[in-house]
Amino acid sequence: MDYFLTDEEKELQQLARRIAEEKVRPVAAKYDRSGEFPWEMVQVFREAGLFAVAIPEEYGGLGMGIMGLVLVTEELSRACAGIALAVAGTALGAMPILIAGSPEQKQRYLPRIAEGEILAAFCLTEPEAGSDAGALRTTAVRDGDSYVLNGTKHFITNGGVAGVYTVIALTDPSKGSRGASAFVVDADTPGLIVGKKEDKMGIRASATAEIHFDNCRVPKENLLGREGLGFVIALQTLDQSRPGVAAQALGIAQGALDLALEYARQRKQFGQSIASFQGIQFMLADMATEIEAARALIYAVARYIDRGGKDYGKVSAMAKLFASDVAMRVTTDAVQIFGGYGYMREYPIEKYMRDAKITQIYEGTNQIQRNVIARHLIKESAARGKA
């Protein structure tokens, strides 16, 4: 379908697609097997300006918003979702600064992120605070002109490779989630310690690690917004970043369909290509239809956010929920079309299935997305009843 992308968006899409095919795809299997972070790809993304896509122009970015980020993430993820996270994870880490940073904070960090000089990471999840993000234990105690952070964050995308971390910590534990605040912490701050690097099922080219704060002292100027706004900033960050996760899932699904189509045309059984069998054709048709429906929803949500839409938490959750479920179904069917070969690491398709699974889990499990959507529906219904 023609989604009426602007000329600038089409150019960005084509650039990301070319990089994905020429640079990312040839090394995807290597990094999947090694689990190493793809610094050579980071350099490619830097030179192409991909880290600048969602950063406003006044801070050295391209100012293309969530839609630009969605287009880049989708195209890179068609080749390797793990490598794509170097860009998408950095955008996530930068979002709290974009949302709540002062002009001085934005000027200090955003140009460096846009240049790709530093990567960024978002630190919300903890060992005891996953879906229950309100159960945070990391603290930030005011001490003179500084805050002293103590606690552990885990499953942090870009953990250990980021140059800056946006961190949600409790400044007043007695208030629960209302006592949370947001901070910007430079990677070289004493007391910020990179812990265990996770050995993951999928997205293995992405760095995922524990981040420990051991009497980590940050200046009070690194507080984002004011004390007590941390949980609000975190929720706003997730509402804006979920279309990016949806785009990652979309790219995975599209990449898997591309491979399944190519294989179905080439694979011969009973004297003909398996693409001639109605059973395979029905699978391919369903896969393509669901992918296009996901794309339409994701693009619409991204446009809505960029154009100042209000209260987009529900539709953002819908995009992430639908696209990630589609990715899991499509990649499972793609492996089935490959048959026994699909189960072998010699063929690329099994990686897509492994990569797809995480999109149903991180930035809020799909069960949490359903909770978010239902709460919005009930609230809207109640408001209509009072009107």
Can you walk me through this structure?
The chain has a four-stranded mixed β-sheet with strand order 1-4-5-8. It has a four-stranded antiparallel β-sheet with strand order 2-3-7-6, with no helix packed on it. A two-stranded antiparallel sheet has the order 9-10. The model has no long low-confidence stretch (mean pLDDT 97). 54% of the residues lie in helices and 15% in strands. It is α+β, with helices and mostly antiparallel strands and 387 residues long. The protein has three domains: 7-119, Butyryl-Coa Dehydrogenase, subunit A, domain 1; 121-226, Butyryl-CoA Dehydrogenase, subunit A, domain 2; 231-386, Up-down Bundle (Butyryl-CoA Dehydrogenase, subunit A, domain 3), CATH 1.20.140. The two termini are 39 Å apart.
